[in-house]
Write a structure and sequence with these properties.
10% helix, N-terminal domain of TfIIb, 4-stranded antiparallel sheet, elongated, two-stranded antiparallel sheet, 2 domains, mainly beta, 1 helix
């Protein structure tokens, strides 16, 4: 489990803690995610908990390039994050700027 964020609500004196887990199936290229939002009172006791299950398929760079090609698009720029950093094997995102051929 990893911490995604904490939001303090000063008006109601509660804290919302967002955590998550990932279960990657690299053979099928599927990630089963669980995200939990837990609301804690001023004493740190849990007063509410919501859980969201998300399953999604992820693609490799060569698969995206093939799909773009089949759709009649050409990638003119590719980034590894929204900050414009280069795409690497360690990138958490794949950002494509495309044009029609």
């Amino acid at each position: 489990m990893f911490l995604l964020g904490v939001v303090e609500d000063d008006e109601s004196d509660v804290r919302h803690v967002l955590t998550g887990t990932n279960d990657f199936d690299t053979t099928r290229q599927v990630n089963r995610c669980t995200q939990v939002i837990e609301t804690l009172n001023a004493e740190g006791e849990s007063i509410d908990r919501e859980e969201l299950q998300v399953v999604f398929r992820y693609l490799h760079h060569h698969q995206v390039k093939d799909m773009l090609e089949k759709a009649g698009l050409r990638a003119i720029e590719v980034f590894g994050d929204f900050d414009g950093s280069p795409l690497t094997d360690d990138s958490e995102e794949m950002i494509y700027i495309c044009r029609f051929k």
